[in-house]
Specification:
five-stranded parallel β-sheet; alpha/beta; Rossmann fold; 6 helices; 135 residues
Length: 135
């Protein structure tokens, strides 16, 4: 299974970088086994509000979220995710939110997590972090 970080979803709407927008759209469209983390869905809604000044209506974000809802599995937070995040925080120098998203990926059987930001963390056993925007 595959998952994406918030930045991938934001680039779907960000016309300031047409190359990243096209790559994000192609990636999201290609993920038949896509998984959406609750945390990412919430961050997506919150961060997308910053796109309003460039003409992205909030209704477009909600429409896209509903499209994902119809084809991707939603993973809700569980106590085991916090337990795993705590372990990751003890093992590596991560922010809490990064530890939580990696923990959810590891606990949910995600094999690839696409993120522009998290690749600097390196890979984890059973989980590859891939920057879909890298040349």
């Amino acid at each position: 299974m595959n998952a994406v970080d918030t930045n991938v979803l934001i680039y779907l709407h960000d016309t300031r970088d047409l190359v990243k927008q096209a790559k994000a759209a192609a990636l999201v469209k290609s993920l038949n086994d896509g998984v959406l983390f609750w945390q990412v869905a919430c961050e997506y809604i919150a961060a997308s509000r910053k796109l309003k000044p460039i003409g992205v209506p909030e209704s477009e974000i909600w429409k896209n979220l509903r499209l994902l809802q119809s084809s991707w599995k939603l993973v809700l937070p569980e106590w085991r995710h916090l337990d795993r995040a705590e372990m990751l925080l003890q093992q590596r120098a991560l922010s809490f939110w990064d530890a939580l998203i990696v923990a959810i990926a590891l606990e949910s059987g995600i094999t690839i997590l696409y993120s522009e930001d998290l690749v600097s963390l390196g890979n984890f056993p059973g989980l590859r972090l891939v920057n879909p925007f890298a040349p």
